[in-house]
Write a structure and sequence with these properties.
The longest helix has 30 residues, at 125-154. The protein has helices spanning 3-21, 26-33, 37-61, 67-87, 91-118, 125-154, 156-177, 190-197, 200-220, 223-230, 238-262, 264-285, 289-305, 307-317, 323-351, 358-386, 393-396. The protein has 17 helices and no strands. The protein is globular.
Length: 397
């Protein structure tokens, strides 16, 4: 794999820390800024909303730029946004800084996916995407726990200052390692790009991503109460157990990329089936502490085994004009799934059937995604069957 992919992974690492570290600092932020924990929790929702809005807007705005320039500009936004978070004097300034920082997220992964696939041979494209996303998985294993410790020891602003330094380092690595020759995109026609988003296969690809990842976050958002209230772990055990989740993320991410390189469609369908099975059977596994730990790792593996196949599938459906825009929209779809899953899990807990049912309800979502993917494949087969067949002139004679 070329060194440029590791530069993209460095950027992904910084973005991953920024997105998730706030979860471990909610108490510190709420006390320091004088807001409730639920208000502090909206900083997570604000970030997700920034990703959903920012991905298409920034991708359209930078559509005619060289892709290396786009990546550098996004890392600059990311770095300045984190510096603004560290210096925010009040809650709403922090919220605004979080949203601005999130604008870089979707476009970075969207454009980065296109750049990554252009750096490798055709049979390694999904693995290239997976390698870039490895930065995100390592952020969950190393960056988030370290950032949480740093914030609790020296104040939450210290964490955002540290992430600012990560952004500076990632900017420098991308500047040095991503080749300029890969950078120039084809001339962009906004109408043609938007028309790609209206293609039925692309829309069904987005829907598959939203439903699949909603299942993951319906459970992961509430993993701490699941482990403490159902499995009976003490609160202090949750962080070490989440390291198992992080290990699963890395394994699933790399395996998903390897399988998708060889069998893209079976990988999309198979990863959704595995995710549904893990979520469904986790309902029973949580009642045993040993099985609960094993299943946390399996959940991480199943969750990220879907990422590279789904991203590669959408890229293939959007072949030609609008590929960068479609790729960014699919990153926004992942985040929309995060928000929808967290909301659904909350509804199940608050209004019934309760915390113990979150896992099997969540399993219905990747099953729904499987149905949408099957519909997309059926439409593909029908369109191929109805496509006009070119007749060779000599044969006609």
């Amino acid at each position: 794999m070329p060194l440029a992919l590791y530069a993209l992974a460095a950027g992904a690492f910084g973005i991953g820390v920024t997105e998730f570290v706030i979860m471990g600092l909610l108490l510190d932020v709420s006390k320091d800024l004088g807001v409730s924990i639920s208000a502090a929790g909206q900083l997570i929702s604000g970030y997700a909303l920034g990703v959903v809005i920012g991905a298409p807007l920034l991708t359209i705005a930078t559509g005619s730029w060289p892709r290396k320039t786009v990546l550098l500009a996004l890392m600059a936004i990311f770095t300045l946004g984190n510096l603004a978070c560290a210096l925010a004097p009040d809650y709403w300034t922090l919220m605004g800084a979080r949203v601005i920082t999130a604008f870089a997220h979707g476009t970075f992964f969207g454009v980065g996916s296109v750049v990554a696939t252009g750096l490798v041979a055709p049979n390694k494209k999904a693995s290239a995407i997976a390698l870039m996303f490895t930065g995100l998985t390592i952020a969950n294993i190393l960056g988030v726990p370290f950032g949480t410790w740093l914030g609790q020891a020296f104040g939450w602003r210290a964490t955002f200052l540290a992430v600012t330094l990560v952004g500076v380092a990632a900017f420098a690595i991308i500047l040095l390692l991503v080749p300029r020759g890969q950078a120039a995109p084809e001339k962009s026609d906004l109408r043609a790009d938007l028309a790609v988003l209206g293609r039925t296969p692309v829309l069904l690809g987005f829907a598959t991503t939203v439903l699949g990842y909603a299942g993951v976050f319906a459970v992961f958002t509430y993993i701490a109460p699941l482990l403490t209230e159902i499995s009976g772990f003490p609160e202090a055990a949750v962080s070490p157990i989440l390291l198992v989740f992080g290990g699963g993320l890395i394994a699933g991410n790399l395996l998903g990329g390897k399988f998708a390189d060889r069998w893209l469609v079976p990988s999309v369908l198979g990863s959704l089936v595995v995710l549904a099975l893990v979520l469904g059977t986790m309902t029973f596994a949580l009642h045993s502490q040993t099985m609960a730990v094993i299943y946390v790792g399996l959940l991480g593996a199943a969750a990220f085994a879907t990422v590279a196949p789904l991203q590669m599938w959408v890229l293939e459906k959007a072949q030609g004009a609008g590929q960068s825009l479609a790729s960014s929209f699919n990153i926004a779809a992942f985040n929309l799934g995060n928000a929808a899953g967290a909301w659904l899990g909350g509804v199940v807990i608050a209004n019934g059937p309760g915390l113990g049912s979150v896992t099997w309800v969540a399993a219905l979502l990747p099953l729904s995604a499987l149905g949408v993917a099957a519909l997309a494949l059926r439409l593909d087969r029908n369109s191929e069957r109805l496509a006009p067949v070119a007749v060779c002139p000599s044969a006609a004679e």
